[in-house]
């Protein structure tokens, strides 16, 4: 009897796991955003910004949202670490790519890195792409809008041609701007893939 009850419990409380790779150049705020996401969905205080260290290699965050469990792989963005990204492509069910709104001089480098990822043969064509424009709190809103426009002009059009669900959100790890909307969009797209 216990085994039967435990089986029902397991069935009804089981979370669907989704593996999400979080990519972007170094110092764009990936790890800070991951900490904000964990804090938002775990209902705990985020780490203070000064205690968040740059990722060298890999950080893993687990976030439970309803019946889904997102396993976020935050991969280091230094040029020497980017070749390691491809080790995670095959298992990725979604991509979060972070672009720094406060550093326009690296936009072309970020665009090239993203295009390299999306053209890799192990990246599935139908997995969602969530682009987070980070540090939106640190720059005027017209700068964020300009970054979003450049992303839409150059990247989103390419993604729509491939049929990949793609969305851009302005975000802030400091005040949480855009984080909930972005992760809710991602969860919805991942759920649609499972139906």
TrEMBL record:
InterPro entries: P-loop_NTPase (IPR027417), Small_GTP-bd (IPR005225), Small_GTPase_ARF (IPR024156), Small_GTPase_ARF/SAR (IPR006689). GTP binds at residues 24-31, 77. GO terms for molecular function: GTP binding; GTPase activity; metal ion binding. Mg(2+) binds at residues 31, 55. One of its GO terms (cellular component) is Golgi apparatus. GO terms for biological process: Golgi to plasma membrane protein transport; intracellular protein transport; protein localization to Golgi apparatus. Keywords: GTP-binding, Magnesium, Metal-binding, Nucleotide-binding. Transmembrane segments: none annotated. It comes from the Eukaryota. Pfam families: Arf. NCBIfam families: small_GTP. This is Uncharacterized protein. It comes from Planoprotostelium fungivorum.
């Amino acid at each position: 009897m216990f085994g039967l009850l435990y089986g029902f419990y397991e069935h009804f409380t089981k979370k669907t796991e989704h593996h999400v790779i979080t990519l972007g150049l170094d110092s764009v705020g990936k790890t800070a955003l991951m900490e904000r996401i964990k804090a938002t969905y775990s209902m705990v205080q985020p780490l203070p910004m000064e205690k968040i260290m740059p990722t060298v290699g890999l950080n893993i965050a687990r976030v439970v949202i309803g019946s889904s469990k997102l396993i976020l792989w935050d991969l280091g963005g230094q040029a020497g670490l980017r070749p390691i990204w491809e080790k995670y492509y095959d298992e990725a069910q979604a991509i979060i790519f972070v672009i720094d709104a406060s550093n326009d001089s690296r936009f072309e480098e970020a665009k090239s890195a993203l295009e390299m990822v999306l053209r890799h043969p192990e990246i599935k064509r139908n997995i969602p792409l969530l682009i987070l424009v980070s540090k939106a709190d640190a720059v005027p809103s017209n700068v964020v809008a300009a970054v979003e426009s450049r992303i839409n002009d150059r990247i989103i059009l390419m993604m729509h041609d491939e049929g990949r669900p793609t969305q851009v959100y302005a975000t802030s790890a400091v005040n949480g701007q855009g984080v909930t909307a972005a992760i809710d969009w991602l969860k919805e797209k991942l759920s649609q893939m499972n139906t």
